[in-house]
Amino acid sequence: MVKARLQNHSLVFINIYAPTNGTERKSFLEKVGTVLNGCGDDFLFLGGDFNCTESFLDRNHAEPHPASQHCLRQLAYSHGLVDVWRRMHADNRQYTWSRMSEGRISSARLDRFYCFKHHFSVFSSCRIMPVGFTDHSLVLGEVAVKNILPKSAYWHFNSSLAQDNSFRDVLRHFWLGFRERKSDFTCLRQWWDRGKVEMQLLCQQYTLNATQDTRRSIKDLEMEIVELEAIGSSTRDRGCIETLQSKKMALASLLDSQVQGALVRSRIQDLTEMDAPSSFFFGLEKKRGQNLIIHSLLSSTGQEPVEPGQIRQRAVEFFSSLYESEYRRDDGLFHEFCGDLPRVSEEANSQLDRPLQLDELHAALLSMKGRKSPGVDGLTVEFFKAYWDIVAHDMLEVFNESLASGSLPLSCRRAVVTLLPKKGNLQEIKNWRPVSLLCVDYRILSKTLASRLREAMEQVIHRDQTYCVPDRSIVDNVHLIRDVLEVSRSLDVDTGLISLDQEKAFDRVEHQFLWKVMERFGFSPGFIAMIRVLYCDIESMLKFNGSLCAPFRVRRGVRQGCALSGMLYALSLEPLLSRVRANVDGLFLPSFYRKIVLSAYADDLIVMVRSQRDVDVLSNLTVLFNRLSAARVNWQKSEALAVGRWTNGLPVLPQDLAWRRDGLKYLGVFIGDEETEKKNWLDTLEKVDGKIQKWKWLLPRMSYRGRTLVLNNLVASVLWHRLSCMEPPSGLLAQLQTRVLAFFWDGMHWVQQGVLYLPREEGGQGLIHLASRTAAFRIQFVQRFLTGPADLMWRDVARCVFRRVSNLGLDDALFLTDFKFAKLNGLPPFYQSVVKAWALFKVEKRTSSESLYWLLREPTVHGARLDVSAEAPPRLTAALWRTRTLLLQHVVAVAGPDLTGAEAVGSLLGIRSTQAAEGVLRLWRNRLSTRERRILEDYGQGTEPDSEDPFPEIRLVAHLGNLDGPLLRPAKTFSLQAVEKKTLYNDCVRVLNRRGLSNRSTSVWADRLGGDGARPCWRVLYKPPLKKRTGDLSGGSYMGLSP
Question: In this protein, which residues make up the domain named Reverse transcriptase (predicted)?
């Protein structure tokens, strides 16, 4: 290892040769991790022969020692390392070592460079080059590290002042005086901007004066104490000693205030935040690279600028060009795309353009999270929350003037654009994502308007677009695509999925086009004018390597950072989606209520095609829409997946886009064949281990509550998105749960683990139980399937899958049966887990149905309400199965609405005795209520069933068997339609851990100390963390571990 100093940068070069023995290599890599702990934010260049690989792409054969691979992956995840060559050559295969053995060539990319992720931009290239003197190839990396000093680009409000009562008085006095100067300015907007500047100066001066006063007071007190100690030791004067004590107390108070200031600067406002889900607590995780520096960029001609000023100029030119308008008006084309758009109701419009209210603005402010980067004025959310009563009415007055005049104050029109790295070569400026940091007062206004617009979005945005629309979820899109592929395979239907990559989607929204689209949607001129104010004469200043660049005009794009941006983008894209729905055939099966054409989540768009015509129509629509709106599809980054035989050949795709047969990644989830879906869980153990490793430094000083927060919020939560829509491999959750428990107990398992998963108010710690959370996700899937919106886009394909359960052919009605009879053969893994999760609960049988539609769909088998097999003649169930008489409507079709056609039923079911057939019908009639028999009579007289009737209420109760105990009682019944996620999860915890919880006392202390029988609750006793490094007296003693 070599450490070097280059100008203002520290560089660490580590050259390694990993042992060829797998066990020794594993130990060696663990030692490398220990060395990396001391690297801090130095520039790290870790290179050499690792003798193992991370990815299947790096070998032409299987990894011979998976334990080493696991250790290498964990090393990379724990320390935020990136494989430089792989990052630059995403899916390529090239090897650095080869060997011939038994007529077979084994190759692998064993030699690599690693660096910290946030320093990846210093690499301008990384190549593999063959050499003649060894069986390994040369890996050559080119690096450019610029001498850039990180600094704060602009002033930020000191959050400690929000807790300072003296500053509040000073600010109030200043603002009251400044309010009298409104007449000195040409408009309130100018006055508001000037006021924010003077508040900045006031904050800076107050902080400087307070710091100087404190330092002066401490110094004076220290000198006085020294003098008093000398006098007291010589004279032993009592008055002198009392004065000395008072001075020491005063000094202690000042020093304590300095300590509190240090706490504030470290983002902790209260000692309870050491064990609360606060920004401070989660910020304790060891992280690197908080200050991203761009060291190298390529010019538009592919050249590499040398000077920092040239690099900065390249970034500014790119983004100022990106935000230049390309809009060209075309009324004919506009009418073609926007002629049939739905319109907002008059009632909704009356709510949208009503005058601003102070309580609306305040509600918007309160909904904002604090400790976020402010806009160019430096004023934070904490500032406005603390001093809302001082500035609120003036802010409303300024906003009203802005909306009337059509322009915001200058500070609100300017955004600070910060750049975040994306995948790909970071020398390409297009691979940096711009995010706008907006002033909080602007965000308050935009959030207020966004709250209004959100309520109208469902009226104009189709169900297959789920972004920024209430009661729609990203998981809906994944369910749809997953099930479309499953149904297409199972039914051998030719289906093509084209995933369109929208180039710079949010940044290319043309303002003029957006306003015209909103008019076509029927939004009132008053509300459109409000939105236009937010985008009138706006500018951006690029924050580049710690400094702000000169502002440039922004003539298109919605700001990613504005609360309205997602909804405005969805509105701008809807004309294209509406034409695609109308002109592309998509997927339609006989059992579908409607065809399925596309799935959209913002700009993540998948279109389903069945023929060359569909592809040609889609390609033509994207070209025309580009001409109309400047939105552009990047076909080189788009993907296409084909399922089915396609005996006549696959359609030809635009611009040499190739069909895939395996799968694709959509909205963060790999979907496709079995091998593709396995990628969802690749490296999961290593990633969780890496996440946990970042907290090991603090573990001995963390309470159990703190450990629970880490595990629940930072470790397990990274799994939720995939677990909610995909089934993990067998055994993975158990392995992850073992790691969770090992971190929680830190080697000392004191309490039965089932107790830990209970809520705190029931004597547990609320520690996450992964299997229970997964089961709860599956029940929520059923809940949305049965009770979700009538036009839920994936319901039709889900019905196709549910019809396979036990080969019943039932879909929604399946959940009116008893799942203990369910057979899972032929079901995909996700649906198998759905059925198993549903079996964790008992369904309370209903007494009657108020809906004709659902009455006719009552099952007659599998323990349903109309299953009379226990009382009927033998072999009735077999006859019902044989004749597929599985629903009441099948019986009614033969026996009539009054269920009296015994002869016809006997003929259908093979019951020779008319009397026996009449007996079966009598059993069915007896199961029906008087109300239901009357409903069937109306059906016989011509009443039609309504398929839009809501699914009957289902009441569930946890299936605990014969087990009992204080920690299992009471098992409450709940309605599937109304149950909350938390209740559902807690019941899953009890069922899956019922054996460990049965007949277990809530606490040994209840019997030893007596009391009123109240249930226990975990608590934490604190010691100030800066004064004494002690832990806590936590649940261990409470659960009876202390004498």
Answer: 401-671
Is the separation of the CB atoms in 498 and 824 below 8 Å?
A: no
Residue keyed to tokens 């500070």:
411
Q: Confirm whether 209 is domain-assigned.
A: yes
Quote the CA–CA distance of 18 and 156 in Å, as a whole number.
Answer: 47
Residue carrying structure tokens 């964990």:
74
pLDDT at residue 1010, rounded to an integer:
60
pLDDT of residue 799: 94
| Contact yes or no for 526/293 (Cβ under 8 A) | no
C-alpha distances in angstroms, 358 versus 395, 396, 428? Answer: 9, 7, 45
In a domain, 221, yes or no: yes
User: Do residues 800 and 589 make contact, with C-beta atoms less than 8 angstroms apart?
Assistant: yes
Phi, psi of 130 (to 5 degrees): -70, 150
Nearest to 983 by CA among 968, 973, 997, 993: 973
Averaged over 198-219, what is the pLDDT?
A: 80
User: Residues 147-194: pLDDT tens digits?
Assistant: 665 556 788 998 888 888 889 999 999 999 999 999 999 999 999 999
How many domains does the chain fold into?
Answer: 3
CA-angle at 348, arms to 343 and 350, nearest 5°: 120
Pairing of strands 639-643, 659-660: parallel
Lowest mean pLDDT among 238-247, 457-466, 893-902: 238-247
Question: pLDDT digits over 105-135, tens only?
Answer: 889 999 999 998 888 888 888 999 988 778 8
Average pLDDT of the residues of the chain? 87
Query: Is-contact 601 485, C-beta < 8 A?
Result: no
Q: What share of the chain is helix, strand, coil (3-state, %, to 5)?
A: 50, 15, 40
Per-residue pLDDT at 278: 54
Cβ-Cβ contacts under 8 Å for 252 (sequence gap 6 or more): none
Q: What is the pLDDT of residues 495-546, one digit of tens each?
A: 999 999 999 999 999 999 999 999 999 999 999 999 999 999 999 999 988 8
Q: Which pair of structure tokens corresponds to residue 44?
A: 């790290």
**Cis amide linkage into residue 970, ω under 30° from 0:** yes
Residues 82 and 171 in one domain: no
Q: Distances from the Cα of 594 to the Cαs of 586, 799, 801, 863, in angstroms?
A: 10, 13, 17, 32
- Which residue range forms the structural domain that includes residue 946? 847-952
Residue 861 is given by DSSP the state S
Distance from the Cα of residue 569 to its chain's centroid? 19
Which amino acid would we find at residue 64?
A: P
Inside any domain, residue 102 = yes
524 belongs to a structural domain: no
Partners of 114 in the beta sheet?
46, 83
> Would you place residue 61 in the very low, low, confident or very high pLDDT band (cuts 50, 70, 90)?
confident
Q: Give φ, ψ of 567 to 5 degrees.
A: -70, -40
Q: Domain end: 146, 181, 207, which one?
A: 146
One domain, residues 164 and 142: no
Out of 952, 972, 991, a domain closes at: 952
SS3 415: strand
Q: What is the CA angle 670-675-680, rounded to 5?
A: 35
- CA dist 29 and 32 (Å) reads 5
Our separate counts of H helices and E strands in the chain read 39, 24
Q: What is the pLDDT of residues 649-675, one digit of tens each?
A: 999 999 989 999 999 999 999 999 999
Contacts of 211-216 spanning 24+ positions with Cβ under 8 A: 214/254, 214/257, 214/258
Q: What is the pLDDT of residue 152?
A: 64
Distance between CA 825 and CA 804 in Å, rounded?
A: 8
The one-character DSSP state at 52 is: S
Nearest to 379 by CA among 544, 227, 202, 206: 202
Determine the pLDDT at residue 146. Answer: 72
pLDDT exceeds cutoff 70 at 928: yes
What share of the chain has pLDDT > 70, as a percent?
91
- Which residue shows structure tokens 């009682």? 969
If you average pLDDT over residues 440-451, what whole number do you get? 96
